Amino acid sequence: MLQLRDLVISFDHGELVAVDGLSFDVARGETFVVIGESGSGKSLTGMSIVGLAPQAAAVTGSITFEGQQMVGRSDAHMRRLRGRDIGIVYQDPLGALNPMHRVGAQIAESLRVHRLAGGSAAMARAIELLERVRIPDPTRVARSYPHQISGGMRQRAVFAMALACRPRLLIADEPTTALDVTIKAQVLDLMRDLRTEFDLTTLLITHDMGVVAEIADRIMVMYAGRVAEIGPADLLMDRPAHPYTSVLLQTAMISEAAPRSELPVVPGGTPALNDMPPGCRFHPRCPFASNICRKVVPPLRAAGAVEVACHHPLTETAP
């Protein structure tokens, strides 16, 4: 359904490269999860797919949705796609909702804009969608302003808005950020049910490995704008090939650590756009880095059942 080839997103006339040669496919019906630290280029990639990259960004390469090229399309063309064919769940539900309009009216607006329903029919559909995303008393919530409902309800309302026109692809950008553990679990259950009910293909962007374990079919790990590793979720999480993926998985197990034990960390931080290291961008933080890692960009290659961009994949060095 979705195919990216050699996607490059840069700023300052190409001097600052935020996404560097990204390629991946999303198959129809699957939940494809993109994971990595803040600053890895995940959200920028997701927003570029629907033509919402920052105005200062230069986007090159190829993005095709159901065979249709998206790079270089007019704003008018992308507005017709957004909401109707591709639904979007943004990081901040409160910021995604207009504080001046009632929740139901904002959901109904998408139906009116894309001429799928109007007037009372659009509002009735909005209330039905709120009920489908498991909001109690959906009529009351539809009449409420965003600040009058809880964070969990706002997140569900954003899902209802994204699904109003029954899109074929859903891009969910950090949909569980800032939610407590109980609400997060409810949102994940909701995503699983919506996938079946709406026959959704989902591109999920997150930094939470716990979310990945619950919902992913395939995973792509990003680091500093490049693919580190990509493969089936169960295989990648059971035996990661990239050192960065391995540490991400270890940090996800912090809640199970013994009292007073040393917690796993990734030393250092994600490099700034104006200070990208040569060779493998992870090498300054990698315990297995060698001279080749500091000089040569590792190609994405097969390592068992996954693909990994690493000169010394763990699956080849582990016993």
TrEMBL record:
BP GO annotations: peptide transport; transmembrane transport
Origin: domain of life: Bacteria
- SUPFAM superfamilies in UniProt: P-loop containing nucleoside triphosphate hydrolases
Q: What PROSITE patterns does this protein map onto?
A: ABC_TRANSPORTER_1 (PS00211), ABC_TRANSPORTER_2 (PS50893)
Q: Which Gene Ontology molecular function entries are recorded, alphabetically?
A: ATP binding; ATP hydrolysis activity
What Gene Ontology cellular component terms go with this record? plasma membrane
Q: How does it sit in the membrane?
A: Peripheral membrane protein
Which InterPro entries does this chain map to?
AAA+_ATPase, ABC_Ni/Peptide_Import, ABC_transporter-like_ATP-bd, ABC_transporter-like_CS, Oligopep_ABC_C, P-loop_NTPase
Report the subcellular localization. Cell inner membrane
Q: Which UniProt keywords apply?
A: ATP-binding, Cell membrane, Membrane, Nucleotide-binding, Transport
**Name of one Pfam family that matches:** oligo_HPY
Specify the ABC transporter domain's residue ranges.
Answer: 2-249
**Family the entry assigns:** Belongs to the ABC transporter superfamily.
PANTHER family listed in its UniProt record: DIPEPTIDE TRANSPORT ATP-BINDING PROTEIN DPPD, OLIGOPEPTIDE TRANSPORT ATP-BINDING PROTEIN APPD
- What is the protein name stated in its UniProt record? ABC transporter ATP-binding protein
